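Translate sequence into structure tokens.
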Amino acid sequence: MTDVPPTNRTPLEHLQAALEEALDFARELTADRVLVRLLAAFRTMPAEDRPVVIDALEREVAARKLSLATEGASGQTMVPNPNARFYMRAHETTFDRSMLERDEMMIATVRGMRAATLIPAIPDVYASWRSATLEAMQEVDEATRTTVEGLVREVLGFIARAREIAQMEQPPPPTPRDAPEKAQSS
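Result follows.
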């Protein structure tokens, strides 16, 4: 058995009606600029990230809807976080020593120190760095903080030693020349 349309429309008329509905729907979608942006971001997102990001978005929207329903009784509201992130940085916990040999570490350290000179030079960047660094210190456990503290103390010692070496390598200041002997008159 085939499905018979409930009206006396011809297949062409059904197609035309479906196309008109699709066109209306497309117009409605493109009229919402935020939705257009959301779809554009979703299309450019790596495909493997989509399920995780959508799960997080759905979870947050469900929590927000629950908050709207209970904010009068609970006195607590939820608001969108303009600084929220879907992605977090991940670092490998193991590394191959051959990937980071001594010379590469030295070069990376030099680059890092040179880049660090830019941080305090730009007030907005400096403020962000301070805030982010404090937050990072709150995110790690005390053992990690202690390890980093020890490394920072070592770096401060290295800075002091580098200054001492630089002082020793400077040529000594010129000594005043002896005054020329005065010619004795006879």
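Note: The mean pLDDT is 84.
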